[in-house]
Amino acid sequence: MNRRYTIIRNVVFAWMTLMILAAFLLNIPRINILEHTARNLYFHVPMWFTMMAAVLVSAWHSVRHLQTGSVESDIRALQSARVATLFGLLGLATGILWSKFTWYVGTDVWWNFDPRQTMAAVQLLIYGAYFVLRSSFDEPVRRGRIAAVYNLFAMVTVPFLLYILPRQQASLHPGADGNPAFDEITHPVMRFVFYPAVVGFIGLFWVLYTQRVRMARIQNRLTANPEL
Amino acid sequence: MMYATRFPVSFILALVLSAALGTPTARAQAIDTAAAAYTEGTLSAQDSQASPDPKEGIATGFDSIWTGSNIPTQPPSGLERVMLSDDKILVVLGVVLIIWFGIMALILRNDRRIGQLETELENHRSDF
Questions:
Q1: Beta strands of A35-176 (E only): which ranges?
Q2: The domain boundary residue, chosen from B37, B59, B75
Q3: Quick one: which of A66, A128, A210, B29 is 20 to 30 A from A112 by CA?
């Protein structure tokens, strides 16, 4: 376990370094309004892909917890949801900065209730409720079971809030209102960096998540309470 | 436990803040402004007239709803003058820094928890 973790961690670190170099150094076409900020495709969009992957991992372990009742899967579901929330918050924050200097340039607007942005914020609130729910139980068995059920509900809302609903409304985000998400005008160089960036950030999630799982395990052994 | 409850509070704060900063009316205005800047072909345009065919341009696939009316763009303010310089590369820097700060925050929290676990371990030792 530890050996595998070390290898993957080192690969992820090297991979992310190369990805960041490629993201800044490779030449891309300049499009009006976007200009260099098109490079945010390598950073802002993988945040959401990573959150989605983390949410799936979390839901999987919640199912396992309901099946077996093991503390280990409860720990994994919680820590995966925590790191998922971190990536969701980062996706929201990077999106706010990006939109300020492209869509809302020349105005005082930072947040405009773009459908996809709003739904993403709602999504994060739903996951915020998961942590509140957990903290309201002192008895670990009940806490684990009820939190796992709520976590499955939270996971089911993800595709609706992040894909289905925003795509049915007019939005400045690509993918809305019959506007393809990854248009044929996306330059091949950008695809060449974008997909490795998604893989790299998911790898980074795995490293951070594994670290927290290990900490929670130690906490559980010391205090018989895995809550971290 | 304290850690868990801090999450949603910051969220609600962020939402309230954002509601104060932007309203749906401002949204329509921002879309119009973007449309004006787009059809001008320049971002620092002082006066703007929507061109007859706003479908021109390489970014058309992404911005079909920016074909609104023409609202005059303000000249760039202080922060915008910095961020829009050098073809907006500083916006990408800002985005990367936000991600870095987020990861740093997680590492700092982990550090604190590890410190508490170390204290806990010491307490267990003294039991024996």
A1: none
A2: B75
A3: A128
